[in-house]
C-alpha cells in the first residue's frame, strides 16, 4: 500500500511540474505579445506623428503665405480647414480657429474649377459677391486666427520633432 502512495505522490509531482512548465511557457508568450503590442503601438504613434508633422508643415506654409498676403483668404481657409481636419493626434481644432472655419463654411459650397466655368455669368457674379461679403465680414477674425494658428502650429511641430 505504501508503494501506491509513493507512485501517486510521484505522479502528482510530475503533473505539477508539467503544469508549472506549461504555465511558465504561457506567461512568456503573454509577455512577448505585450511587448509586440507595445512596439506596434509605438510604430503606429510614430506614423501618426509623421503624418501630422507633414500636415503642420503645410499649415505653417499656408499660414505664412496668408499673413504675407501671398494667398487669398478664401483659398487659404479652404486649404487650412481640410488640412487641420486630417490631423491624427490633435482634435478640437475647429473651436480653436473659429474665424477660419466660419469662412470655410461660408464658401465651401461655391463652385470651383470646371464647375465654376459651367456657371452662368450671373451665377458667378452672385457667388463672387457672396464670397467677397464673407471675406469682408470674417477678415479680422481670420487675421486673429492666423496669429494663433501660427503659434499653435509652431508648438505642435516642436512637440512632434522632440
TrEMBL record:
InterPro entries: DUF2489 (IPR019617). Keywords: Membrane, Transmembrane, Transmembrane helix. The keyword Transmembrane helix applies. Residues 16-147 form the DUF2489 domain. It holds the Pfam family DUF2489. The chain crosses the membrane at residues 6-24. This is Coproporphyrinogen III oxidase. It comes from Colwellia marinimaniae.
